[in-house]
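Justification of resources, computational component.

The compute hours requested in this renewal are based largely on the per-chain cost of generating structure records like the one below. Each record pairs the submitted sequence with a full structure-token output. That output is archived, and it is also reused by downstream analysis tasks.
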Amino acid sequence: MAYFKLPAGVRDVLPEECMALEGAEEVLRLKFRGEGFLPVRTAGLEYYDTFAGIRSAVEQSQMFKMTDRDGKLIVLRPDMTLAAARIAATKLGSERAKLYYFSNIYDFSAGGNSEREVAQAGVEIFGEEGAASDACAVAFAAECLKAVGVEDFIIDIGHVGFYKGLLEGSGLSEEAAEEIRGYINAKDAVNTEIALKAHGASAKAQAAILALPSLFGGAQVLSEAEKLTDNPLALSSLSHLKKVYAQLKERGAEKYVSFDLGTVKSLAYYSGMVFTGLAAGAGAPVLSGGRYDGLCAQFGKNLAAVGFAIGLSRALGAVKKGGKAQC
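The structure output for this chain reads:
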């Protein structure tokens, strides 16, 4: 009967898959603890107003909302990084912390075949900054994917500062820049060009931004990107990525990474390097992370921060299918 069906985007996890998920969680728990991370479990419900003044990748309109008994709006946990940053800024006395979690997040914007309830495992590192810290996060992300059995994967690395640098002097408003960022992430060159012209971007900015989707591959793309701009922020972002790559080579992790300057995540949320894990057999990224140095300050304590989350069901789907990654 109809009332036995589940809402779009959610599903039951049956015994075979549930056992696989539990096995992956146990493997990752050992990895996390072995690297000195401590566990946290964040509240599943938070006040809607908590996010009113927070510049976040999750818009309030895209949160599951309900009314509490006192009439106040509350939301289902929309993002684990937001919750971990709130804890680090308001409840931990130390200036440095390494936290891990296993938790579900709830995405109101998804639907149809997309997941609205997503099981994640992740880590957040607070109080560390610099290329060495960024490289450590990326290398550890690769180790975690291998630990759960994902063999054919690549981690694409970008930097939001490069896009921000291209925007300086472009004549684009913050709203226009965010609209165009969405088109770039979707690899939609047609609408990117239309929007750039419609919003009156300078010719120099148009040329550089339209080149973003082609800037992917090995470390040589960083040198290619330097030819597109003389903006100090953009150039310093590329210099930082070169340092990250050098650190990855020292760790023997460079074979797991590529660069994609056309991956431009939320400018309100991320502050520096960003990265995405792509794996064979998965129709969407299995891992996502980056640096978000300004987020904790919005909760009252300024802490450098970097982290990543693994989508457990997607990662295990890649393990099960075991095809070749399309990179």
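The two ends are 43 Å apart (CA to CA). Residues 323-327 have pLDDT under 50 and may be disordered.
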